[in-house]
What does this fold into?
Amino acid sequence: MEFFAAAFAMAYQFGDAFAFLVISCAGLAIIFGMMGIINLAHGEFIMCGAYVTASTARMGLPLPLAILCGALVAGIVGMLVERIVIRHLYQRPLDSIIATWGISLIATQGVLIVLGSTMQGIGTPLGSIEVGDRSYSAYRLVLMAAAVALLIGLYFLFYHTRFGVIARATIQRPQMAQALGVDTRRVYGLTFGLGAALAGLAGGLYAPTMTMVPTMGATFIVESFVTVVVGGADIFVGAAPAAVILAAIRASLTAWYGQLFGQIGLLIAVIVVIRVMPGGLSAWIKGTRQ
Amino acid sequence: MSNETLLDLKGLRSGYGAETVLQGVDMEIRPGEIVAVIGRNGVGKTTLMRTLSGLLKPSAGTIHLKGRDVTGDSADLRARAGIGYIPQGRDVFPELTVRENLLVGEVAGTGRAKPDYDLVYQFFPILRERAHQRAGTLSGGQQQQLAIGRAMMGNPSLMLLDEPSEGIQPSIVKDIARNVRTLNAQTDMAVLLVEQNLDLIVSLAERGYVMEKGRIVARLSRDEITSREEVRKHLTI
It folds into this structure.
């Protein structure tokens, strides 16, 4: 029983880190992998999702629906941002970094001015479960399941739907896709919207576990960028395995040496990876496959 | 129907940035015709194809397709209007399977034609065999067949075929020529062919345009093409 409890504690730590990495990076990974755009406003789309989720939940909407609302609103905002700003910067990746950074500043400061320095949050639902002599949050187990479901859902979307096939074609050969009748601007608009919606989903899912402040997106930024950098341009053979490896590193370091070393280990892992495989895991995996 | 012009170019000028490659091209193609554009490397044949597909914006002149002015239309609108583009180097989507490549080809025919996988597989049986293989792993000849099949999925009324024989073994070239001829006969699809391979030109083209320095300098009849002399003169360096 002792052993089981210890193993569960370890698995819980790992699952929690894995879920956080996957959920927080999915939107960033899709926008970077599919469009080559480094979205520095990723954290603010997360904040948007969290704020919408918290306010709609407090108005009485059931939490799952409130989370979907958060994702939807973030997605719509994302499509607007794409149309107004990003669309004009596709050939200028550096400018798009600056532009998204600007959007991020405007969003955090705007929310600070309009809604104040903090907003009333929502409590974590589902209570806790006891294993051995320790208790664990049941909601975090739901988040782990959500992370796995998210990966499966995205895989289905990109490999088994018409939109997914067309989107992948557009990434590989944008001009050829267009010459075959694909409205590539629409594909980019929808992809950016999807990435923003996924960020909003991340915010919604983690809203019940966090304090609502305008800068809350920053909590996710390090982990999501680390995962995308280690993973490279492909979410399935990149970000997903990267999340597994990073979660293992973080969970074991945190368990043995504490939170701080978990964070340090994560950053050292990134430095090692970009030194050894500059294209990230996905480039390395694809390279060995050929 | 056969007297109506399918594609009509007037004074078409186009190029890359400040450099004008096409210096005013006039050309017309009727439905169901196979027309070759002949000329040496660098005279602007591929620029012509890219401008017709819509990937390059013309700087002057007009393009009419089935009587409608499409000069300002983007590439996706032209594809939906019935232009099927098979670029030099084929440009299949390497990470997509053969079948997924064909699925993207469906897009051009949206609302205009029913996608017909069986027809494509009938012309190119190898594509059925390799349906679930990634296109990047196919040989050059198979990729060429896929690029043609992919364009067929949109049921085009004009196929732009840019150097289909490039880097492909002769037996496959013959195969492709036979298939294009059958397709043309069965579907009334016109073909604009850019080629350096004399045999392929002779076996397919009903007439031709000779291009030099971005201009059309001569028109060749079927007889002039089959006599080979005229064609050879414009191909040799």
